[in-house]
Design goal:
- There is one protein chain.
- About 35% of the residues lie in helices and about 15% in strands.
- By secondary structure, it is an alpha/beta fold.
- Strands 3-2-1-4-5-7-6 form a 7-stranded mixed β-sheet, sandwiched between helices.
- The protein has 13 helices and 7 strands.
- It is globular and about 60 Å long.
- The structure holds S-adenosylmethionine.
- The site of S-adenosylmethionine has 23 residues, from helix 2.
């Protein structure tokens, strides 16, 4: 998924820097507290004793329940086949986010909007009838979210839709399975505010990848929450927004305080923070806060970030960015 701040491309760098400091991971509990797509938890999943994954957004919880929480074989083939061949229905997504319904919005083609509704309703029906278990439920939902996102008619996020259906949005949604890695150990997945969850968990390695600017994930990805929750509400305004979480990590006046609060309450020996040079907190500010709690270090890598073109999801502009991995070996644990 094309996700703001995804560490998919940086996962090799982050993993090797973490392993340099921490060593063998097989007896360690690794926590990805702002997990997003789950890219970093996934990089450690088969090698750690346990992964704890968390994100405040429900769509991310669904992705992590699948990619991290699921770790044993499940039956999926006939369910995916049946879902992919369903006839479309005029449900909540079609009625509110497709132009054919007269909604005035065009986040999906009419065909794909109806297909999303049909698949989403069937998954819930199977779950209620206990025809699928929780593991299958999250696997199927994650598959739907990722494939719906691939045919969304947006420049990159759901803050706006495009006037014309772009090429990728004209393609018919196909339900490609969201395969996950198998492993023996069970993991834990949460859907909570990081600063509240930190008081209830403990482990060895804490990886932090909070938002680094003012863009709220809840508004930028509102439609993924709407598909994942499939609840009934009145979509708001031109973009059909739902009520959303406002993260304090996106607020310049709040971020330093809550970041420090997180460090203070963390019962983890090693803490790593991904943040880049365009963040609300400066590199020096982060260093000053982290140094209060133990031994500090820094690893840096340069990479090309691609800025989405306003009208199409291509012709991106490349921008050179420095990605920092701030490192803290905590002196005293809770
Ligand atoms: C930079 S993204 C993480 C990207 C992730 N590492 C990846 O590779 O996909 C930041 C994430 O923090 C989540 N978030 C924001 N505020 C939060 C909070 N207070 N508690 C937990 N998660 C939060 C957002 O929903 C978003 O998924």
């Amino acid at each position: 998924m094309n996700y703001i701040g995804s560490k998919d491309k940086l996962s090799k760098f982050i993993k090797s820097e973490i392993e340099k400091i921490v060593g063998e991971m097989k007896d360690k509990v690794f926590c990805d507290l702002f997990a997003g797509t789950g890219a970093i938890g996934r990089a450690f999943k088969t090698e750690s004793k346990k992964i704890i994954a968390n994100d405040i957004e429900y769509y991310s919880y669904v992705l992590n329940q699948n990619y991290i929480g699921n770790h044993e074989e499940i039956e999926w083939r006939e369910f995916v086949g049946e879902l992919d061949n369903l006839e479309g229905v005029e449900g909540f997504i079609y009625k509110n986010y497709c132009s054919g319904s007269g909604s005035g919005r065009q986040y999906f083609s009419d065909e794909n909007g109806k297909k999303i509704d049909a698949i989403r309703q069937k998954i819930e029906e199977w779950k209620n009838a206990e025809q699928i278990n929780e593991n299958q439920y999250y696997f199927l939902l994650a598959s739907l979210l990722e494939n719906a996102d691939a045919v969304a008619n947006t420049a990159s996020v759901y803050g706006a839709y495009l006037k014309q259906l772009k090429k990728s949005a004209q393609r018919t949604l196909t339900l490609k399975p969201a395969f996950f890695d198998l492993n023996e150990a069970a993991h834990e997945v949460f859907n909570e505010d990081a600063n509240s969850l930190i008081n209830k968990i403990e482990g060895d390695v804490l990886y932090l990848d909070p938002p680094y600017n003012a863009r709220q994930y809840g508004s930028n990805y509102h439609l993924l929450n709407t598909i994942a929750k499939y609840d009934n509400f009145t979509p708001n305004g031109k973009t059909g927004l739902r009520n959303y979480e406002r993260s304090l990590y996106c607020q310049s006046r709040e971020v330093a305080n809550i970041f420090e609060n997180l460090l203070e309450n963390a019962d983890f020996k090693y803490i790593f923070l991904s943040y880049n040079n365009e963040g609300l907190m400066s590199k020096d500010e982060v260093e000053k806060i982290m140094k209060k709690y133990g031994r500090y270090g820094l690893a840096t890598t340069e990479y090309q970030r691609f800025k989405a073109d306003k009208t199409e999801n291509r012709n991106h502009k490349a921008i050179g960015t420095s990605e920092y991995l701030h490192i803290l070996e905590k002196k005293e644990l809770r």
